[in-house]
Amino acid sequence: MSSDPAKSERLAAALRANLARRKAQARARKDGPAVDAADAGSVDAREGSGAAPAGNVTIVSKDEAG
After folding, report:
1. In the structure, what pLDDT confidence band is assigned to residue 2 with cuts at 50, 70 and 90?
2. Is the pTM of this model over 0.90?
């Protein structure tokens, strides 16, 4: 690594912040989407885009559905 201790400390701090951010994102995904007042009226960008739905999908024929 670099011999500059200040640079090493900045890098370590940035890595810790990145890890904390990624853990928070993973927890948010696990808990489901949070909706705040600013997002309540917005449309999900994936709607109508042909993107696959999130989660497990089970395909059932008409015979099995009834």
Report:
1. low
2. no
Q: Angle CA(35)–CA(40)–CA(42) in degrees, nearest 5?
A: 115
Which residues have C-beta within 8 Å of that of residue 2, sequence separation ≥ 6?
Answer: 8, 11
Residue 23 has pLDDT above 60, yes or no: yes
Select from 27, 22, 32 the least CA-distant residue to 55. Answer: 32
Would you mind telling me the total number of residues written for the chain in this entry? 66
